[in-house]
Design a protein that fits this description.
Strand order of the largest sheet: 2-1-3-4-5
Helix content: 25-40%
Number of helices: 12
Structural class: alpha/beta
CATH superfamily of the largest domain: tm_1862 like domain
Largest sheet: 5 strands, parallel
Radius of gyration: 23 Å
CATH architecture of the largest domain: Alpha-Beta Horseshoe
Number of domains: 3
Oligomer: single chain
Distance between the termini: 51 Å
């Protein structure tokens, strides 16, 4: 992996703006890119309009994300007409020259896996060269965090071949970082909470021959360095009793399970493990271990072959199991994936209707669970003035807890929940 920035010989410091789209893993990449640009003598701009270099870190997971990425590029081209505009990230990695031809507004399309230079046009007196310095984006150092929490990417790529997902085709097979590198990064970030992310989190270390022996010691090691360790994106087949116990021991019994559906035939068409009964049993077992455990998952609606019976099964599962948080996504056909070879296409209008039904059921469940917290005292981490979270809320994903502005940012406080408004809570401070 070689994606590089070389300094320019300029008397005036250049300013940059990095726009990030997509998942938390992209956010980590953007922070590392920004750190590299600062190291090379550039400074962050206050707005895109003030930047000499604009970098758009794109998402290519589904069609909706790709369209948002294109719209963002066009908007930033208009806002920063004189800036050098570089498109990078998943769309650049996946489509390369095709994207470059389709987006003449971009000065450069630079995937993470090819030798390119960002913000690195040589000066007139620079000697010509065909060689560019390279770096490993996954292990590139990053600057200290500007919040009391940070995403920490522990691996890149994925070895699974889920029927709907094209990510392995452009992010490659799983490649885990060393535990030493991850620990060092967390220590350098200066955070109270480390949020671990990867395409297949529970498989961390498997490509190094460690299997489950990789993720559990890593979590235990990080717990000795930060107050909270949160794990996002867990495949249910890898959620063993020992990993469950390790997560509960972090003080953050938050389980983000990648379920996608509950119909066994449909999951088989997705090339996924499990069914609703197995998922419900796994969740019930965790609740027996830790009654205060919190659960999040995502589900795909309208996958090829999804029947009314499949949809009803998912509706029943959502209503009966009572997950705290849920996301529902309409299936998006991705070129080169197994799903595009399947029959049984679900009309978009029907898929949208099914998604609305599921969202209505889940909204009531989430609201009821938030109401149940009214009157309770909870420990929160204050992320910003007046804004905090308990272990029940993942940053940037779930609801927040509004707290008095006087509570110190970056510190833990005990508060009493006084009210709820949708996914968000209002709380008052409790005297120490």
């Amino acid at each position: 992996m070689a994606w590089a920035s070389t300094p320019r010989s300029l008397s005036v410091v250049r300013r940059f703006w990095v726009e990030t789209l997509g998942c938390p893993k992209n956010q980590v990449d953007s922070e590392k890119v920004a750190g590299l640009l600062v190291r090379d003598g550039m400074t962050a701009a206050a707005t895109p309009e003030e930047a000499d270099l604009v970098v758009v870190n794109t998402c290519a997971f589904i069609e909706e994300a790709r369209q948002e990425s294109v719209d963002t590029v066009l908007a930033l081209r208009s806002a920063a007409a004189d800036a050098e505009l570089v498109v990078t990230g998943c769309m650049a990695e996946r489509y390369g020259a095709e994207l470059s031809d389709a987006l003449p507004e971009a000065d450069r399309v630079a995937g993470f896996g090819v030798p390119v230079a960002i913000g690195a046009k040589p000066s007139a007196d620079s000697p010509p060269t065909d060689e560019l310095p390279s770096f490993d984006l996954l292990n590139l150092p990053r600057p200290p965090a500007d919040a009391p929490w940070a995403y920490v990417k522990i691996a890149e790529g994925c070895d699974r071949r889920c029927g709907y997902c094209a990510i392995p085709s452009f992010r490659g097979p799983q490649r885990s970082r060393t535990a030493e590198a991850i620990v060092a990064e967390v220590e350098g970030l200066g955070v109270r909470e480390a949020v671990l992310v990867a395409q297949d989190l529970a498989s961390y270390g498997r490509d190094q021959g460690r299997g489950e022996r990789g993720i559990i010691p890593l979590v235990e090691s990080l717990c000795r360095r930060v107050d909270w360790v949160r794990l996002l994106y867990l495949y249910p087949s890898d959620l063993t009793d020992s990993l469950t116990d390790a997560i509960c021991a972090t003080g953050v019994p938050y389980f983000d399970l990648s379920l996608q559906h509950v119909s066994r035939p449909l999951l088989a068409r997705m090339r996924r493990w499990g069914d609703g009964d197995r998922f419900a049993a796994r969740i019930s077992g965790i609740r027996q271990r830790q009654p205060e455990a919190v659960f999040r998952s995502n589900f795909i609606v309208g996958y090829p072959g999804e029947t009314e019976a499949d949809h009803d099964a998912l509706l029943d599962f959502v209503a009966d199991v009572g997950l705290d948080w849920c996301g529902f996504f309409t299936y998006s056909a991705e070129a080169g994936t197994h799903a595009t070879t399947l029959d049984g296409e679900v009309p978009p209008e029907l898929a949208a209707e099914r998604r609305r039904e599921l969202a209505e059921v889940q909204d009531e469940i989430t609201a009821a669970k938030r109401d149940q917290l009214i009157g309770r005292e909870v420990e929160v981490l204050v992320d910003a003035p007046g804004m905090a979270r308990s272990y029940r809320e993942a940053p940037e994903i779930d609801g927040i807890i509004s707290v008095p502005d006087r509570l110190s940012v970056g510190q833990f406080h005990t508060v009493r929940v006084a009210g709820a408004m949708g996914t968000d809570l209002m709380a008052e401070a409790v005297a120490p």
